[in-house]
Specification:
alpha+beta; three-stranded antiparallel sheet; 2 helices; elongated
Length: 124
């Protein structure tokens, strides 16, 4: 936990695509909690959809990192030990990189399924 006594909502990250077609929320642990896709996204090809999902999830993760940094800055201003906040941020960065790697694999598989579904729909 980054800071005790804090509401997890304070360290969740969220982002929405500029066109409002999708949004993502990552939890206090940095893991994806929600991904909302509007019906408009069904018109996208698999690769474009995957790229946009990755972008909105990364934006949510960055929002979470910014919130963690803000909490760390507040804690440092209150006279707490800043070394532990730096350690937690570094650990979070490693976790985000791991999640990014996993998400890439998951999105690649999802892209393949979407492409196969579109191919089957075209053949029907």
């Amino acid at each position: 936990m980054i800071a005790s006594g804090r509401d997890d909502d304070e360290i969740r990250g969220q982002a929405e695509a500029a066109d409002g077609s999708m949004s993502a929320v990552v939890g206090a642990d940095g893991l994806l909690e929600r991904l909302r896709l509007s019906p408009r996204t069904t018109r996208l090809d698999g690769a474009t959809l995957a790229d946009q999902i990755v972008a909105v999830v990364r934006a949510a993760q960055q929002d979470r990192l910014n919130r963690v940094d803000d909490i760390g800055d507040e804690a440092a201003g209150e006279g707490t030990d800043n070394d532990s906040a730096d350690f937690d941020v570094q650990e979070l960065i490693l976790r985000v990189e791991e999640l990014e790697f996993r998400a890439y694999g998951d999105l690649s598989r999802m892209n393949a399924v979407l492409d196969e579904t579109l191919r089957r729909l075209d053949d029907a």
